[in-house]
Amino acid sequence: MAHSTVGVIFSNIHDENIPELSRHRTMASVPFGGRYRLIDFALSNMVNSSITTVGIVTKNNYQSLIDHLGSGKEWDLARKDGGIILLPPYSDETDKPYTTRLEALMSITGFLTHRKEDYVVISDCDGISHMNFGEIVRFHEEKGADITMVYHEETEPCESNYFIALDPDAKTGRVKGIKISPRDLVPGKKYALYVNVMVMSREFLVNTIQDAVTRGFSSFGRDILAKNVDTLKIYGYGFQGYYAGVNSMQNYYTHSMELLRRDVRDELFGGRDIYTKVRDSAPSKYLEGAVVRDSLISDGCVIEGTVENCILFRGVKVGKGSVIKNSIIMQDSVIGENVSLDCVVTDKNVVIRDRRTLSGCAELPYFISKGRML
Amino acid sequence: MLRKKECVAMLLAGGQGSRLYALTNNIAKPAVAFGAKYRIIDFPLSNCINSGIDTVGVLTQYEPLELNEYIGNGQPWDLDRAFGGVHILSPYQAKKKQSWFEGTANAVFQNMHFMKKYDPDYVLILSGDHIYKMDYAAMLRAHKATGADCTIAAIEVPMKEASRFGILNTNEDGSIYQFEEKPKQPKSNLASMGIYIFTAKKLFKYLEMDDADPASSKDFGKDVLPAMLRAGEKMYSYRFRGYWKDVGTISSLWESNMDLLGKDPAFDVGDSGWKIHSRNPLAPPEYIGEAAKVENSMIALGCEIEGTVQNSVLASNVVVEAGATVRDAVIMAGTVVKAGATVEYSIVDENVVIDCGATVGDPKSAGAGIAVLGRNITIAQGAKVKGGTVLDKDYKGE
What we know:
Oligomer: heterodimer
Number of domains of chain A: 2
Low-confidence stretches of chain B: none
Largest sheet of chain B: 10 strands, parallel
Largest interface: A-B, 38 and 37 residues
Number of helices of chain B: 8
Number of helices of chain A: 10
Strand content of chain B: 25-35%
Distance between the termini of chain B: 67 Å
Mean pLDDT of chain A: 92
Radius of gyration of chain A: 21 Å
Shape of chain B: elongated
Strand content of chain A: 25-35%
Shape of chain A: globular
């Protein structure tokens, strides 16, 4: 079944949610979990669901994404037929690059038309989860749905300005109502929040896009989903597992720290692989006097100080006498000697000189941007 | 245009590694795990690509399956090439004869057609059982500068160990006047590293002569090099001054792993100027738990450490449960040390289970030697494996 499914990943769609981390990169290439980028989760879910053709829709700042994906071989997606297909934005005198999801889909109609697969799984890359797309496609087929939208029940509406709440029928899963960014949510009540993963038949998607072009629609959520909730067979697939939507600096921090929980790690990494670019770093070294507790440490680190409740990305150095707590230190950052950090998030290649003290709080982690030297 | 390669490397990887006992029951020595994420063969292969040599024949014979699978198409070393790249060369059946590789020289001789395909000017002979970082390009420059027919890489070893090696007796300019294989009374401490660069034409000539000689044991060190020297060919030594270790024994393999530890290690695999490439484990970052204590150690991805780890090298996906202690040990991928178990001064191969409260090895200070556990075995709850013991797949528990 899944072999006849093509994947589409939107790499830019939520960039504005974490401007700190996506200023110089796509949302897809935001580092996460010590050695991954956000896109690794959506992409690995596709590969693990036997999807071997994935179109990646880009818009801007996608150099870091191209660098990360390379030929796609790390995901086993360097293929003669299919594999990773980058879909850069298209523009000319009359057409400007897309601004909405629907316009983005319009710009990739050529790609969709020329594929041969029956189904399309469309995913954003703001979600961290272990999702079996094969199962969702089966659900879609069984229901005879036009559109299947994956949701996760959550009490807290996410902080994002734009989100979609579904009202699926408890028995059939048929979506009876779609609300876009409703403002009247009751605190503590569970809502079926759409997680930006959708399944359609390729034919239905292509026809829908072409129809939208002729009618001059611009919003997929408003003009296609919300408006047609009665006429289209839209089904909600309730995802039961761990799902972390990353849409603000604060919940980037919270969800990162959740990886220190065994149950979360077991669900995300247990029994299958999350693929990512390899760097051939040496294994991490813990020196004499190092104290490391409750932390995730990636390869290439050299630790001489104290690290507690932290996530260290590849190639991080922590000097003697330094105490790093509750922090996320990204790739190749260097923490000098006798430094004290608490609730700090550093981007890549940050240097913190000897004897500096910095702290934020869990609600507002102190962020240090890429390449800065303090 | 005729396509050619200036230098082709032939990597001798057929050794059984019998002195590694349980570690080489089912795999060739070059495939033995080293340094938490590497295998021994990663070092010569990385040296090749870092030296600009992109054509490597790997000569296998003993238990080649895992080694072949590991090398695959050579992509992790950037050795997947349209012309050149890494090739596994196994013994084969031919029209006139069929035979296993009889000695190091015979193995290379039987693959003459592989080398000739690239029309090389030089051939580099390597062995797959040493840990070192070396720029073969610099050695090749020296070979050209001296106009030698054969250049042998050499390193100074302690005089008392010299009789374990092939010893080069050289003149001041580095030219070799005598070659002694494992001499009882060595005249010098300049040992051959088993790394040779030959001018290709000379190599082909002497390999053919060696093949035709029924008295020859078909070995580079014992036959080919002495024959060239006798015939007056120009042979030079090339002095290597870095870290070099033959990891052919349990103790040298253990020591070489320990040489990776510390702030200024004897051997640095983290040197970004000379990367050691390998097939990487697919695993999340290692998790170091609340009560864990990890000191002076190297830990690979995917490990889950809740206990104490000191002076040890742990490969990917090793689990050390709460209350367990691992000290002075080398632990290979996927092994589980359960709650309250102790591992001291040991080498533990892949996917071993050391059950709750079991003890493997004695403290290093006790002087009992290194305990070795082969793959996939289980040490029962509360069992005790004495220091210096070697257990392999036939071990069924006490």
